[in-house]
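Fig. S4 source data, part A: sequence.
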Amino acid sequence: MREVVRGILGKELTNSLQKMLKEYKRLKYDDKEIYRNTKDLDDLSIMGLYLLATDDKDNMAFYIKKAYDKVLTTRVNKFRNAVNANHAELFLHRLSKTEVVNLAYHMKLYDLNAKEYDKLSDHNKKCYKILNEYINNMV
């Protein structure tokens, strides 16, 4: 898996992620500690960390996945608050395209057909429109 991650993220980032993973194991981190250490990383780095951890026969990959789920849930809550405060575009501007797409996907608001859209609550329709427009206008 290391070579796959290296091919995607590059040698330097992969080496840094491996060092982080080694440190997490040495300190016996659980999902809460991993969350505190990864919440400010970009999604690709967290997923690279997860993929590297899948090579080992311990719970580290599970803890990283659980921490990443918390990152996404926190992002969803912050986005909903930004929508309510009419600051959604400012919030989305701070995220990478990958993070915006992951946000929409995690909210189950990505690539909906008309029937699925009609079933959404008014707030989710508003969120969907904002996310869809933002994603379509990103370069």
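Fig. S4 source data, part B ends here. The chain has a mean pLDDT of 95.
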